[in-house]
Amino acid sequence: MSCASDSTGLYNCRDFPSLFALPGYIQASRALMIAAIVFGTFGLAATLTGMKCSKIGGENYILKGRIAAIGGVFFLLQGLSTMIAISWYAANITQEFFDQFYPGTKYEIGEGLYIGWSSATLAICGGSCLLCACKFKTTDDKIPYRYQQSSRGHALSTVQTSQTVPSNYGRNAYV
């Protein structure tokens, strides 16, 4: 109880609002949403690390594919925990709303729940696409990027060799 007295000496007491005084499903929904935020953060970090265009991890595409797949798993976990939390909260809100004998405040389903369902669906779809797109290739299947030369490691020489290769293009043909 939270009590206060006025100048006449009368005490007014009311229930002390606490986070632990909330119903269990609200506390569980909050815990699931915090877990979803953590999963999403780890998924984002793993996905950015596992992208082929990132410099982290070098050119080991097998390792990068596995890291990106782990990011997809984290996004799936994020979507599932968000979907469970949002749906559980909405089910309880709906049950309390239609209960004629419920003495507390009756809430309605709002925009936040629809945004939560949309974000959970997008996270599940994105995680599944990321997980399916990661191919576990061998090192023989490594494909260089298009902007890289196929003869990596070989320096072009400016010294003219005695053998000339016939070409259909003259000096002025290159732009």
Description:
With 175 residues, this protein is mainly alpha-helical. It has a domain at 23-97 and 108-138: Butyryl-CoA Dehydrogenase, subunit A, domain 3 (Up-down Bundle), CATH 1.20.140. It has three helices and two strands, in the order ββααα. The protein has helices at 24-50, 61-98, 111-133, and strands at residues 2-5, 11-14. The chain has a two-stranded antiparallel sheet with strand order 1-2. A hairpin with a 5-residue loop joins strand 1 (2-5) and strand 2. Helix 1 runs antiparallel to helix 2 (61-98) and helix 2 packs antiparallel against helix 3. The longest helix has 38 residues, at 61-98. It is elongated. The mean pLDDT is 78. Its main location: other. Pfam families: PMP22_Claudin (PF00822). GO terms for molecular function: structural molecule activity.
Major sheet details: 2 strands, antiparallel
Q: Could you tell me the CATH topology label of the domain at 23-97 and 108-138.
A: Butyryl-CoA Dehydrogenase, subunit A, domain 3
Span between termini: 83 Å
Helix and strand pattern: EEHHH
Structural class: mainly alpha
| General shape | elongated
Which whole number gives the mean pLDDT? Answer: 78
The helix content, as a percent range, equals: 40-55%
Radius of gyration: 30 Å
CATH class of the domain at 23-97 and 108-138: Mainly Alpha
CATH architecture of the domain at 23-97 and 108-138: Up-down Bundle
Strand content: under 5%
Low-pLDDT stretches are: none
Adjacency order of strands in the biggest sheet: 1-2
Protein name: Claudin-15
Family: Belongs to the claudin family.
InterPro entries: Claudin, PMP22/EMP/MP20/Claudin
GO molecular function: structural molecule activity
